[in-house]
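Bench log, entry 3. Co-assembly request; chain sequences pasted below exactly as received.
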Amino acid sequence: MDNIETEIYDLEGRHIKELDDDDIEESTISPGFILYQKNKHLWIDLKHHQYPYILSIRYEMHFESIFFWPSWRPQPTIPVQYSQYKLIQDDPLPFHYHTISDTITPERSVEDGDSVYVWARHNIPAKEKEDFIPPENRLQQAVIFAPGKFELGDSHGNFADWDAFGAWYRQLTWEKYHLPQALKNKIHQLIRQEDNPYGVASALYRFLQQNTRYVAIYLDIGGWEPHDAGTVYRNRYGDCKDLTTLMIAMLRYADIQAYPALVQTRDQGVVYPDFVANQFNHVIAFVPLPEDTLWLECTADFIDITDMPASIEDANVLVVKNRSDEIIRTPQAPMDANTWSSHSTLKYKAPGSLSIASRITCKGKQKHGFKSLFARVTPTNEKILLQKIFGKYLPNFTLADYDYREEGQPNQRYVIEIDGLYKNAVTHTVKRIFINPNILNRKTMDHFPDDENRQFAVHIDYPYRAIDTLDIALPYGYTLESAPEPLSLDFSFAHYKTSYSFEDRKLHCIRDFAYKKNHIEQDHYRTLQKFLRKVIKNDDTYFIFKQ
Amino acid sequence: MGFIMKRIVWIVIILGVSLGHTWGTGILTDAEMDSIVDKANAFIIEHSYTFHIHNPTNAKLNVEIRMQINSEKAKNTDAHC
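Structure output for the full assembly:
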């Protein structure tokens, strides 16, 4: 970057001040998940004490490859009176572009022999900010570009079609799958007992998870070209493409077909399948087994082989096979694969506390979430973390004891057991006590998408189901005076069901909530709001017992 | 996660705007725009990108932005370049 100039003017155009080079701060920040990156970040803190004022900024950026062709994003979170993107080419090169939101066509001309295109817009409103907006709708107006051909480092490629782009990535990785003899010997040892491809893949995936770590170091075209499998094995670390390359190399050595799949992680949006361009930020392994296809996230150390993180589910990915590369939509696990199920026994402790003994069983992403958390915290912090999680809705929670483990074959579920005390969990008057049994899960206004004129779908990370069963022992001499109405709500996108009974001074409650879909179309928005209002109200209603 | 594109240098200019509400994704009339910018804590007067490709391995992006800051409430905009 060169020639950064910034100035401040008043509204009459009088120059007030300009920034010195000393006002520009430089740092070599890498994102948290990258150990080293050659990028530099420049920060300018621009302030003036008298309003209003006009701020003017100019700068240049130099590109050594048009692979990284900058897009036009004319709509920030403030209104824009005029925005334009001018493309000048010394020699006309083939390129294509994709318009996000409504169509906008460029004006073409020739200036001093150069080919010129201009995209322009007046009066652009600020970008919509909606609660739970789908990642692909965060960018609401843009033009994105791709060159017909490109050079990156020593490699040459083109975006004629997905097959052509896949061929370029194949060329970058072609020589990277050789394994050292020591690893070949290890693979023989690992798969000796396995008699089917799924067992072989599972053994190798476990080996990868237990023996490598995610570390990214980017130099030159390191953002795209993986290290060879032997180096990754020796280093015991790598980024997504390094670890995926090692996994694919091991699978292929064991006679299992496996290919890299380029991904745009779901939190960043969805790849436009009709626009052939660099739309990817991640890579995973595609393993088409006879029984089922596996999509392996090779940077995740704690996920089961059949589970996929939400970041790569329901995503358009480019599978780079030996030829005929294509965009495929990855599958998404249903709600019943991502479950939380708790059984809790609670006892009233005067004056107003509740003791709890709870067993929580998690599967799928709920399990992965806990497993990753426990792997990352120290034993000292485990207790603090659990107190925070289980004290979310009743903050005066003291955890006395806990345990967690994997159960089932092979490691199907994660079980957490807690023992503790919720102080002041029960409100009481002289003759009445008030109890809200939704201690572990409840919906609040934080979960409510509140937009008057909703433009986009509602998006959460993944479908899931949470069932809480509680038995609460009350003191002698109390009868049930009032209770929340048992609800049974069922829609195509979610369900909610509550039930209760009170017998022998024991309150038995069941709450069952599920998001059947994680992407709820705008057509259902009002229904979703009505559904959530009822859920939130019901979750916040107390049982009242009278002496 | 990996696979980040190579960028030589990137600049983030944090100015900040808190507008309180939004105005949709379409295009506004001049009158609508005038009404909005009167109330806005900040708005962009003109934002221009010029991408000049000399050849596939040599290109330059020139960016110019002029914005009006109306209030100290202008915080945390994503108006970056």
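Chain B has one helix and three strands. Residues 1-18+26-81 of chain B form one domain.
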